[in-house]
């Protein structure tokens, strides 16, 4: 054990001497490993950060949540001209499904609409996202409140002029004032603020809740009717936990076909978009990005490996005389072998650590500049260090073997 500790100490000393005495050559050799490790860890960190952000954004939704509407979230075999003829889902269908569906936990009727400006006295916040919905929406997509509450069933059914606002909307309209109970103007109408949401930051999918407002869907239905071009309805359905989702979808299809009077042989003129299918698609994309990143970064690592091998061959040649003296004094082949292997690994790990340090610095800068948290995870650091050590081991094995097999007499003579 003491022998290997001594080897490690001497190899570190040789590696540092190589860095000091041959700065340019060592820098160019380590640059390949640095770039390779930087590329791989940067890709892994970016993908991990994005994956974490996506899962955090979707954490409030059950993966079995269904979006029932005339549009599909993904590609469809139905021709576009036929899809354009599909009718919108209606409030009456929402009410029918709410009363008749088995294994139903929660169901909400929502409207997707354009962005609007919102006012309080002389203050205006532009381009806010408006989400008209029924009171059940709070039980499907978990909203966190800094103040107040969501509207109740009575307010939802009657279309009361009440509103919940995001944190940035509250700051833009009221500054440091308490928004609760204040009257704000939207669609030329007055709404009473009954809730303010917690700040959540940017959202990967859809608008951020910080710049969103929520109001009873029946208020907007009363204002614009059910056939306005600016409104796209959707029914959000959350089945009970543990339900057979395929059986649930089958019942949903049968009931909606019956309500719409579709005959046998007629295609479904609606789409059932299950959130789990969407998340599976995202997981697949994240996996493919990881693979592509590994392939691209692998070429950089290959170049880095050749650089390490080159510097080790030069190091063996420069120290041939010293190797001969060590052997003449009784050093065994494995001592010489491990000496150069340790040196190659140490040099490679130094390059890898520099690469990971650059990723860490860039992640800190981007997290400050952008409204997105880049994270260099513990496992990514382990992967980077292991890869660097492995590249050093592979690159140094042949130079180390050649050094260990040198004849001591010929090695000493060659240095004279």
TrEMBL record:
Residues 294-408 form the ABC3 transporter permease C-terminal domain. Its main location: membrane. It is found in: Cell membrane. GO terms for molecular function: transmembrane transporter activity. The chain crosses the membrane at residues 27-47, 291-314, 335-366, 378-398. InterPro entries: ABC3_permease_C (IPR003838), MacB_PCD (IPR025857), Macrolide_Exporter_MacB (IPR050250). Pfam families: FtsX (PF02687), MacB_PCD (PF12704). Keywords: Cell membrane, Membrane, Transmembrane, Transmembrane helix. One of its GO terms (cellular component) is plasma membrane. It is a multi-pass membrane protein. Belongs to the ABC-4 integral membrane protein family. This is FtsX-like permease family protein.
């Amino acid at each position: 054990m003491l022998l290997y500790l001594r080897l490690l100490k001497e190899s570190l000393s040789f590696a540092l001497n190589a860095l000091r005495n041959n700065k340019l050559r060592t820098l160019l050799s380590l640059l390949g490993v640095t770039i390779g490790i930087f590329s791989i860890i940067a890709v892994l960190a970016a993908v991990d950060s994005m994956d974490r952000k996506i899962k955090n954004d979707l954490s409030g939704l059950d993966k079995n949540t269904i979006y029932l509407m005339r549009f599909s979230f993904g590609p469809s075999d139905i021709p576009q001209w036929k899809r354009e003829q599909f009718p919108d889902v209606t409030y009456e269908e929402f009410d029918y499904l709410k009363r008749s569906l088995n294994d139903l936990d929660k169901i909400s009727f929502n409207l997707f609409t354009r962005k609007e400006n919102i006012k309080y006295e002389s203050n205006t916040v532009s381009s806010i996202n408006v989400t008209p919905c029924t009171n059940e929406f709070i039980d499907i997509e978990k909203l966190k409140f800094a103040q107040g509450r969501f509207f109740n069933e009575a307010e939802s059914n009657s279309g009361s002029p009440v509103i919940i606002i995001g944190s940035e909307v509250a700051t833009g309209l009221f500054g440091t004032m308490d928004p609760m109970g204040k009257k704000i103007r939207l669609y030329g109408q007055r709404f009473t603020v009954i809730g303010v949401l917690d700040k959540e930051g940017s959202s990967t999918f859809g608008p951020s809740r910080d710049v969103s407002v929520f109001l009873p869907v029946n208020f907007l239905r009363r204002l614009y009717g059910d056939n306005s071009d600016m409104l796209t309805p959707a029914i959000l359905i959350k089945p009970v936990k543990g339900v057979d989702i395929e059986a649930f979808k089958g019942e949903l299809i049968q009931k909606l076909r019956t309500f719409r009077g579709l005959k046998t042989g007629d295609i479904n003129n609606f789409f059932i978009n299950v959130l789990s299918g969407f998340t599976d698609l995202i997981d697949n994309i994240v996996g493919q990005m990881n693979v592509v990143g590994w392939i691209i970064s692998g070429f950089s690592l290959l170049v880095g490996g050749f650089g390490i091998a080159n510097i080790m061959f030069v190091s063996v040649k420069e120290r041939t005389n010293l190797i001969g003296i060590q052997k003449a004094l009784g050093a065994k082949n494995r001592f010489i072998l491990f000496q150069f292997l340790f040196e190659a690994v140490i040099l490679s790990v130094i390059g890898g650590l520099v690469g990971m340090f650059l990723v860490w610095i860039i992640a800190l800068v981007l997290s400050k500049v952008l409204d997105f948290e880049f994270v260099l995870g513990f496992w990514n650091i382990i992967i980077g260090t292991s890869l660097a050590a492995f590249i050093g081991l592979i690159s140094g094995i042949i130079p180390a073997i050649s050094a260990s097999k040198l004849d001591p007499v010929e090695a000493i003579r060659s240095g004279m």
